[in-house]
Write a structure and sequence with these properties.
The structure holds 2 protein chains of 2 kinds. Chain A contains 6 helices and no strands. Chain A is mostly helical. Chain A is elongated and about 70 Å long. The chains are: A mainly alpha, B alpha/beta.
Chain lengths: ~170, ~300
């Protein structure tokens, strides 16, 4: 009976560790998805000169944070074309990218000043720079996730064991 | 009917304005709405409305940088890169055959205008379609067997394109003349206002339109592919256009074109037109005069003698 109790406490502690690292995993996945989607966006602009509303609609069909961002922009543009792309873009970043930290969001928000406003070459350059920057953030976030996952796991197990010893 | 159509055209153009300015345009009296030729936006000034005889400010309006940015964004569908080629030439063709002209700071690369930064003024020109104006002119352009090659002339905004469009329609429909197959090189998209493969403006049933393609290329392609009896193009501006017209003239095709010139002196001052006249590419000139909104048309020979 006691053994089962200890096991349950340890499982609970591991679950807590898993949930704590969940946000870190979500951030890494979001950055990865955004990086890929921005690169796709750059490719479409470079080779097809696709109009932005159509491009947003197309990229909005993708899954993940990148798809969600472009889907939201497409919605914003269709509901309020007069509001402009910058407004729709900024709102979409705010609404869909809760996993990112402010510095990462800033990289995305800045694209709102460029998309649809310049020739394709300049837009492509900015998109690729933003994608590269997000790639750097992703690597940092992935390292942080690995490191903190171990720490959270060790702390949770130690805490669980401690609790079990007290209760026994 | 024509007036209502013209007022509807103004609505099409006003759709590219921010809400506030659009509402002000909608409050113009019906008579005034029918006469509007252009809307002009300049940073730091009110919106100006250009009528045939006067340009008046719309009281209580003001234009700032964000106004121009909104107009450009709406006109380009939030995608300036899709209209960059046109922007480099200082204008954007809009759905419905309307035209947006732009001024700002040019960014030049390798001697060519790469883009316009800091747009400072925009003019929105309302396309006009006035049916029947070519009727009294066409008989004077008819030679012994066929239409004589004709150049339509007036200063900018004089109504050249409107007349050319109606001439094409009459020829293509056989209205007041034997019907002709007309090939149209519509580089700026203003003659036919093509949208989804359909002309937004009436050019008649025997018309083949090649739009958004450089005139020189389009004229050659039409000549080779569509067996036209008449070739038409708006605004001869470059030496390549002249070369294409010269080539077409040697193929037994009648030509219709427009050019900016207020007088014979203006015309002869510009080498490309002088060349066209000396080579006898055009044997009829139609002069469009705009006197306080009333347009009159004079047909002359290449020497300027009335016919």
């Amino acid at each position: 009976m006691k053994g089962a109790g200890v096991l349950l406490i340890l499982l609970g502690a591991l679950l807590c560790a898993h949930r704590a690292t969940g946000r870190l995993r979500e951030r890494v996945r979001a950055l990865e998805s955004l990086e890929q989607t921005l690169r796709l966006c750059a490719g479409e602009l470079a080779f097809r000169l696709t109009p932005i509303p159509r491009l947003c609609g197309r990229l909005g069909e993708r899954t993940g944070a990148g798809g969600a961002l472009f889907h939201q922009v497409a919605e914003g543009l269709s509901q309020d074309p007069e509001g402009g792309l910058r407004k729709s873009w900024t709102q979409a970043v705010d609404h869909t990218q809760s996993a990112l930290n402010p510095e990462e969001k800033l990289v995305l928000t800045a694209l709102g000043d460029v998309l649809g406003r310049y020739d394709s070459g300049e837009q492509v350059r900015e998109l690729e720079q933003a994608a590269a920057r997000l790639g750097e953030f992703r690597q940092t976030a992935a390292e942080e996730q690995r490191r903190l996952s171990r720490v959270y796991c060790a702390l949770s197990l130690a805490g669980g064991l401690g609790l079990a010893l007290v209760l026994i | 009917m024509t007036e209502r159509v013209q007022a509807d055209r103004l609505n099409q153009v006003a759709a590219f304005l921010p809400r506030e300015l659009r509402r002000r345009i909608e409050t113009l009296p019906p008579q005034a709405r029918e006469e509007v030729e252009e809307l002009r936006l300049r940073i730091g000034h009110p919106l100006f409305v250009l009528y045939p005889h006067v340009e008046t400010p719309l009281e209580g309006t003001s234009v700032d940088r964000s106004t121009l940015e909104t107009v450009l964004e709406l006109a380009s569908g939030s995608s300036v890169h899709t209209v960059m080629d046109q922007l480099r030439q200082g204008y954007i063709s809009l759905p419905g055959g309307h035209r947006m002209g732009l001024c700002g700071t040019g960014a030049v690369e390798n001697g060519e205008l790469r883009t316009l930064r800091r747009v400072s003024s925009i003019s929105l020109r309302v396309a006009r379609e006035i049916k029947g104006i070519a009727g009294p002119i066409l008989p004077k352009l008819w030679g012994e067997r066929d239409l004589e090659s004709t150049l339509i002339l007036s200063p900018p905004g004089g109504g050249k394109t409107t007349l050319l469009r109606d001439m094409i329609r009459c020829l293509s429909a056989g209205e007041g003349c034997p019907p002709r197959r007309v090939g149209v090189a519509d580089e700026r998209g203003e003659l036919a206002a093509m949208w989804d493969g359909l002309p937004g403006l009436d050019l008649g049933p025997r018309c083949d339109i090649l739009d958004r393609c450089p005139k020189a290329l389009a004229l050659t392609a039409l000549l080779r592919g569509m067996n036209p009896q008449v070739l038409a193009a708006d605004e001869i501006t470059a030496a390549s256009d002249t070369a294409a017209f010269r080539e077409a003239a040697g193929c037994g095709v009648s030509l219709l074109a427009t050019a900016h010139a207020g007088s014979m002196e203006d015309l002869l001052r510009r080498p490309i037109y002088r060349e066209l006249l000396s080579d006898q590419i055009f044997s009829r000139l139609v002069w469009v005069r705009n006197c306080r909104g009333d347009r009159s048309y004079t047909v002359t020979d290449p020497a300027g003698e009335p016919l």
